[in-house]
Amino acid sequence: PLTFFGVPGVLSLLYGLYLGVTVIYTFNMSRMLPMGTALLTAIFILAGIFSFFTGIILYSVGNQIARLMGE
User: Fold this and answer.
1) Which of 47, 45, 56 is nearest to 1 (CA)?
2) Fewest C-beta atoms under 10 Å: which of 29, 43, 57, 58?
3) In whole angstroms, what is the distance from residue 24 CA to residue 47 CA?
4) Residue-wise burial string across 8-27, b where 16 or more C-beta atoms lie within 10 A, e elsewhere
């Protein structure tokens, strides 16, 4: 679960951060906020965070179950 949810989560988070930098750059240059790109930034960042932490939680739960079944 960690690689299945973690890797796409980190990639989504990084892409969201890249989009965030472009939104800030565009706002600084033109004083206009690109709403579509800003919304995509928020979506990618939130999806990345949720996916990454879902992978961590599922990995931890799987290890706990495996440990309990082994005892």
Assistant:
1) 56
2) 29
3) 20
4) ebeebbebbeebbeebeeee
pTM (2 d.p.): 0.89
| Structural contact between residues 46 and 10, judged by C-beta atoms closer than 8 angstroms | no
Q: How far apart are the first and last CA of the chain?
A: 23
User: pLDDT tens digits, residue range 20-34?
Assistant: 999 999 999 999 999
